[in-house]
Amino acid sequence: MDSLNSINPFAKRESQSPGSVITYKILTLASWLLSIIVSFYYTFDGRYLGHDHHVTTIWHLNYAFYSGFTQNYMITSLFWLTLFIVQAGYILHLFSTSVDTVNAACAVGSHFILNNLLHSAWVLLFVRSHFIWSEIFLVVNFFNLTALYFRHNAYARFIHLPAVSGPLAWTFVAIYWNGAIMLPHQHGLVWRLFANVFIWSILAFGAFFIAVYKDYTMGFSLSILSASLGVAQFHRQVVAFQWIFAFTIMAVLFVISGAVAVPAWAGKDAPWSRRQTRNGDAEQAPLLADP
């Protein structure tokens, strides 16, 4: 068992060898740059993509296949731009002079690297209209990030938001978005009624992490993505329920996230929180506490 753990990149370790740290630095930076380059390249106007008519941009497909989960390109693009920026901050902590900080950053490194690779693969498949395969990659990444969350959910904000909650929030919403595009006649009445129901899973998903882990970063992330969905749905059809549901979810998640975040920023627990911690047990430490 020890020999298996020694070669398993996803095994939990209290510390990292110098060689492992160097490997994490190289692979994390390389996979992150790949994710950025692919995302930015396929966000640009289609005329920059050559003469391959089977390849287009992310947002061209978003509006070409209108569905109950179509998003606003500006809000979602700003979400991703912000996420890439805070991910740069996370990567810088791999180069910290503090051993504890480096070990904490490396602890989520394998899952973060895999997330970058899966995200890049999703973009490449999505813009080529391979929607079934792109959906499969999103589902695989969802399991990757969910496993990361439940194994490492007590790290500080500089790790948790860029490497864990931000990517997981996006992947959860993207599964619905990509899945809706994948379906035939996704703009039809039947699928829109299904969208009216399944949109509430965004609220349930966010509320779970806020209630159980006091994770306001997940709540705020899903609130932003719900706003993106709401704006796009409003622009498409004013007389409809989907944009009303989206803005309702956005508001509820924002309020309850703020109710958790404000006491946390003030160094206090939320008044209804009964979560206890044990000294020296990092996994039971308050979620998102600063180092």
From TrEMBL:
<feature type="region of interest" description="Disordered">
    <location>
        <begin position="271"/>
        <end position="291"/>
    </location>
</feature>
<feature type="transmembrane region" description="Helical">
    <location>
        <begin position="131"/>
        <end position="151"/>
    </location>
</feature>
<feature type="transmembrane region" description="Helical">
    <location>
        <begin position="104"/>
        <end position="125"/>
    </location>
</feature>
<protein>
    <recommendedName>
        <fullName>ATP synthase F0</fullName>
    </recommendedName>
</protein>
<feature type="transmembrane region" description="Helical">
    <location>
        <begin position="240"/>
        <end position="266"/>
    </location>
</feature>
<dbReference type="InterPro" id="IPR013920">
    <property type="entry name" value="DUF1774_fun"/>
</dbReference>
<keyword id="KW-0472">Membrane</keyword>
<dbReference type="Pfam" id="PF08611">
    <property type="entry name" value="DUF1774"/>
</dbReference>
<keyword id="KW-1133">Transmembrane helix</keyword>
<feature type="transmembrane region" description="Helical">
    <location>
        <begin position="189"/>
        <end position="209"/>
    </location>
</feature>
<feature type="transmembrane region" description="Helical">
    <location>
        <begin position="158"/>
        <end position="177"/>
    </location>
</feature>
<feature type="transmembrane region" description="Helical">
    <location>
        <begin position="21"/>
        <end position="42"/>
    </location>
</feature>
<feature type="transmembrane region" description="Helical">
    <location>
        <begin position="73"/>
        <end position="92"/>
    </location>
</feature>
<keyword id="KW-0812">Transmembrane</keyword>
